[in-house]
Amino acid sequence: MPITEQLLKRYFDNQVTPAEARRVLDWLTTEDGLTYLTHRLDAQLGKADWHAPPNSSAPDPDQLLSAIRKRMEPPLPFIDVPVRQANWYAQPMRWAAVLIGFVLLAASAFWGYQQLYPKDLVYRTAFGKMASLTLPDGSTVTLNGNSHLRYAPRWATHQTREVWMDGEGFFRVTHQRNHERFVVHLPNKLNIEVLGTQFNVMARANRAKVVLNNGKIRLDVGDQAKQKLVMQPGDLFYADVKAKVYYRKHVDAAAQSAWQTGKLTFDGTTLQEVAQMLEDTYGVKVIIADPDLQRQTLSGTIPNQSMQTILDGLATLFDLHITQQSNRIIIQ
Taking every annotated instance into account, which residue ranges of this chain make up the domain Protein FecR C-terminal (predicted)? Predict the structure, then answer.
């Protein structure tokens, strides 16, 4: 179907469908399309009613083109408009016409891109709140409090399934017919690649902990350790990027992810680790003044319905004196 002047007018007025926007963008990369753009810019340059903002310097055309390229990244092609070498920018008011012409083209192309390729979805949980969501491929994620997950609203066949997470979550990943990869990107260049599997991941600031329940995952620890680690069920991998501490050990995987079932299970967990969990999940400041108490290990199970039930359980099960002053928790 040919490109008509009526379709082009609707395109620049942002009144086209995603399919029509795709057709126009493809045509604009042809010789005829580039000629049309050149004539359109020439027509704008001939207008005398543009007014430059006061005290504004002439824009750098290379910077303008670079900025537009960044907004029109693949799969949409960048449109290189032939520009004559005449000294347009030295002529009064003409540089403003050039600027608006480029912005018009970039805005229209970017609008079509947004319609064809919607923005990623972002899901956040509040302090102390859990949430479960289903990803485009049917995989599910249960997020712990104070966690953040970003992912595309849809994944095409043969496309890598990618999510970006900061916080704590339990993943149940579905295996796809075409074996598409599933990758979880964590802070500090830590990445988890999986097929069909279940695992728990905690990623906060400089620390990360990954526990595999079943299946197999490959952990890419990025530039810090320069290695790829294949994990087996029951493996726990811990990384403190700032302190450059990395280790793997075997644990009770079910206990590590018990938080999503309304309980916390400790198996040789230090009280300092418990304090860090409370700070991360509930946004409080936990103070344990006694270093020996910080290193004391805990084993057992307590309810996880709220921060108060956790504090009550810790006090009862481990004979601790716990007081709360506003947003500060003091353990003695």
Answer: 263-331
Residue at which a domain ends, from 260, 284, 302:
260
Number of domains in the chain: 3
How far apart (Å, rounded) are the C-alpha atoms in residues 211 and 214?
9
CA–CA gap between residue 248 and residue 238 (Å, rounded): 6
Contact status, residue 217 vs residue 228, Cβ threshold 8 Å: no
DSSP-derived 3-state class of residue 329: strand
236 and 127 fall within a common domain = yes
Residue at which a domain ends, from 225, 242, 260: 260
Give Rg (Cα) of the chain: 28
> pLDDT tier at 162 (50, 70, 90 boundaries)?
very high
Closest to 304 measured CA to CA, from 130, 133, 146: 130
Model's pTM, two decimal places? Answer: 0.61
Per the model's pLDDT, the better-predicted residue between 131 and 23 turns out to be: 131
Residue numbers of the domain that contains 101: 5-116
From residue 213, alpha-carbon distances to 195, 217, 257 in Å are 13, 10, 9
